[in-house]
Specification:
binds ligand 9MR; Immunoglobulin-like; Jelly Rolls; 28 strands; about 750 residues; about 25% helix; 3 domains; globular; alpha+beta; six-stranded mixed sheet; six-stranded antiparallel sheet
Length: about 750
């Protein structure tokens, strides 16, 4: 399906962001100042302040007396409008600033001065009493003459004084040359290798001959040694590399390092223990993503926050939400569910695939040879429902399922049974912003065939998995699934629009055949209905290659149906062929992994890493893992396990993409409420949060300012502003949770 290329156009936050990397700026072009009177030599004009701020000139600086008691940073501001920006040009924003008392953090933006007030670039430096000079480079994602340079100084309980000088925005500057700190040239899984599992590393080196390596224990004693394997140029990073296989060492321990070519790796364990922890942490992530419920400090120390979107001011949702104008004339209670990602939107298709994957993790634990259902059982996740005798993973998934069911168009309406595609704010909000502080109007967007079939698929899956625990819920879910299926059949081509990306992601998709196939598979597995068997057997997707180099995701869902038909016991005629198709896909991914000097089952066409590439890598690993579940062959188990190395540090950037795991790990993921990088009173994302990962298209201006011309794996930056490479999302963490459980299940292998 080619939807991905299209949907990237409807990019969040910036409708006009570029689809591919912007061409490198003109280093030799004239540098032109865009800010007028930035030195305040001629007074305060043309600078403005919000009415609650008094501005005055003091020692040649503009000082703002900021009142206390405002909520958001944009509630008090100083700025200048009518700034012209040229799409694709690089700009240097610089200024001097001080603040008293110590410790305040203004938000400095370059954005649109009129509705919808898009932000093109923002920084939040902590200012000191003595003052500092700040300078940043970014690339404009738009053409406009209605730009603004704004200093947002609200959000403080107490009054304070902010002063600034020499404010400058110069266009036509060369883009910044950013050098990531990649540490030692030896790249390992910084968390753990399984004692009896594969153990591989990658060495960045110009050497072409085999080099000696040593494995050292925590005391520095060499416990194994061997020779490297030259691998030549790695296309995914542009580096010259060699690889090391130290699988023959099988003793448990902590604090090992790998040494070669004068380089010592970051430390790692040989142990299954961290994977047991990661299995829980990757799932615990969902509780702090919940909408509609207060997050308890007792359950998640440091993450407490009021319930979001329960109809309490300033929230305008989600208990009584209207449609977008012209879409419907009823209102729905769509409270609950998980926030999608770093935004406050809730999207049925992404909620659907995330729910599928959690339910699938649970279902696999019940039939797979290495499955351990007790590890997902009641009390494993410390959530409000722990202790209710229902497996915690099912309780967590139900939080989303109940929301998905609420998104269905009510009986009596013309589109009854269809599901609204999404619900989110009218306009994009800024960062940071607790869900409970979101003042925007929320709206239901039109129903879509894809959302309806996501609902059908996951509700059908739920009907079979919750039956032992709650028959009434199982029946309700099945009825919803059947009505959704019927509605989708009646409206097979109501596609979510590519241009519906203001205030929330578009999740556009111009093909629903894959969702039909997936929903039919889940309905068949739950009911055994002949109607669904017939549908599956007649679908061209039943025999097509539904896997491909970038695997499956929220918009390409046929593989979900295929995987479940292959693994969940059923009597579909020709099921052996279905099972073989999964093994065949795994063979292809395994060949990719074997050929890859960094050992990952991912080699996208043109080396173009996709938005959320980490989840695609993990989902390809899932297919290999299921080939192991189907065949019991060690090569598949080892391939799946090895894929985790990339996520946990064996990569070009020498960092783990899971917060709290590995010596150097992502911790500034883009999120409105885990926004510690912008507001020290807020937490970082919880441990077990996966960052989206390298994204060759770098759609956000922060990444564009730093990563122009990046190669594959290098198109990533751990900054909260980089929403196209560094967001957290419910579908991505589901892939991590699934694979963490698989690896944990292998124990000592
Ligand atoms: O993960 C989504 C990616 O596949 C799309 O290309 C991109 C643009 O439509 O949107 C991504 O999803 C974001 C969504 O639109 C809004 N919430 C945050 C999601 C993760 O970045």
């Amino acid at each position: 399906m080619i939807r991905r290329r299209l949907s990237a156009l409807a990019v969040m936050a910036l409708a006009a962001a570029t689809l591919t990397a912007v061409p490198v700026g003109k280093a030799t072009a004239d540098e032109v100042e865009q800010v007028r009177n930035g030195s305040f030599a001629t007074g305060m004009d043309p600078w403005w302040t919000t009415t609650n701020v008094t501005g005055e000139l003091s020692d040649g600086m503009l000082c703002a007396n900021v009142p206390g008691g405002t909520t958001n940073r944009w509630d008090a501001a100083v700025g200048q409008n009518d700034i012209a920006l040229v799409k694709g040009d690089s700009y240097r924003l610089s200024f001097k600033a001080s603040g008293s008392p110590e410790g305040h953090v203004p938000r400095v933006i370059v954005g649109l001065s009129v509705s919808p007030y898009d932000t093109y670039y923002e920084v939040s430096p902590q200012v000191s009493v003595s003052g500092n000079t700040y300078s940043y480079t970014f690339t404009s994602p738009v053409d406009t003459v209605q730009g603004q340079v704004g200093f947002q100084v609200g959000g403080s309980a107490d009054p304070w004084r902010f002063c600034m000088d020499d404010v400058s925005l110069v266009g036509g500057v060369p883009p910044e040359v950013y050098e990531p700190d990649t540490g030692p040239r030896m790249r390992v899984n910084q968390v753990a290798y399984l004692p009896a599992g594969p153990k591989n590393a990658t060495l960045v080196t110009t050497a072409t001959e085999r080099l000696p390596w040593q494995l050292k224990d925590a005391a520095g004693t060499t416990v194994a040694h061997g020779r490297t394997v030259p691998r030549g140029e790695d296309a995914s990073s542009g580096q010259h590399v060699q690889s090391i296989d130290f699988s023959s060492y099988r003793k448990r321990g902590r604090g090992f390092t790998l040494v070669a070519d004068g380089e010592t790796s970051r430390p790692f364990d040989i142990s299954p223990v961290p994977y047991g922890q990661l299995r829980a942490d990757a799932l615990k992530y969902y509780y702090t993503q919940r909408s509609g419920i207060e997050i308890s400090d007792a359950l998640r120390p440091g993450y407490a926050r009021p319930a979001g979107h329960v109809g309490t001011a300033p929230n305008k949702g989600d208990v009584d939400v209207p449609c977008q104008p012209g879409v419907c004339d009823y209102r729905l209670d769509v409270s609950g569910g998980w926030y999608d990602a770093g935004d406050h939107g809730k999207y049925v298709v992404n909620g659907g695939v995330a729910t599928w994957q959690l339910l699938n993790e649970y279902e696999r634990s019940r039939w797979a040879r290495t499955g351990q259902p007790a590890k997902l059982g009641d009390g494993t996740l410390a959530i409000p429902e722990s202790g209710n005798k229902v497996p915690d993973i099912l309780d967590e998934a139900r939080w989303e399922l109940e929301f998905l069911l609420k998104m269905q168009v009510p009986q009596g309406e013309p589109l009854a049974g269809m599901a609204h595609h999404k619900i989110h704010d009218v306009n994009w909000t800024g960062l940071p912003l607790l869900p409970s502080d979101d003042p925007q109007q929320r709206e239901l967007h039109p129903p879509s065939t894809q959302a309806t079939l996501n609902l059908a698929a996951t509700a059908a899956q739920a009907a079979r998995l919750y039956r032992p625990y709650d028959r009434a819920f199982a029946s309700r879910a099945l009825k919803a699934a059947e009505s959704a299926w019927a509605a989708a059949e009646a409206h097979p081509e109501m596609y979510p629009s590519e241009s519906d990306g203001i205030g929330g992601g578009a999740y556009s998709d111009s093909d629903a055949k894959d969702e039909f196939y997936w929903a039919a598979a889940e309905l068949y597995l739950t009911t055994g209905g002949k109607q669904f068997a017939d549908y599956l057997l007649a679908s061209p997707l039943h025999t097509a290659d539904v896997f491909g180099a970038t695997g499956f995701d929220w918009g390409r869902t046929a593989a979900l149906g295929r995987l479940d038909l292959a693994t969940v016991p059923n009597r579909l005629p020709g099921r052996d062929r279905v099972r073989r198709s999964v093994v065949k896909a795994a063979d292809t991914y395994l060949a990719t992994l074997d050929a890859h000097p960094y050992g990952l089952p991912y080699a996208p066409a043109g080396n173009s890493y996709d938005w959320g590439s980490n989840s695609q890598i993990l989902n390809n690993a899932l297919v290999i893992a299921e080939a192991y579940d189907i065949t019991g062959r060690t090569a598949y188990r080892d391939g799946a396990v090895q894929s985790m190395d990339y996520i946990l540090g064996r990569n070009a950037l020498n960092q783990s993409y899971v917060t709290g795991y590995g010596e150097v790990a992502s911790h500034n993921e883009h999120s409105r409420w885990y926004a510690h990088e912008l507001d020290q009173a807020l937490p970082n994302p919880p441990k077990g949060t996966l960052a989206g990962g390298a994204n060759s298209s770098i759609q956000d201006p922060y990444a564009q300012g730093k990563l122009q011309g990046c190669v594959g794996q290098f198109c990533y930056i751990d900054d909260i502003q980089s929403w196209s490479t560094n967001e957290t999302a419910i579908n991505w963490n589901a892939a991590l949770a699934w694979m963490a459980a698989f690896v944990a299940d292998q124990g000592d292998s």
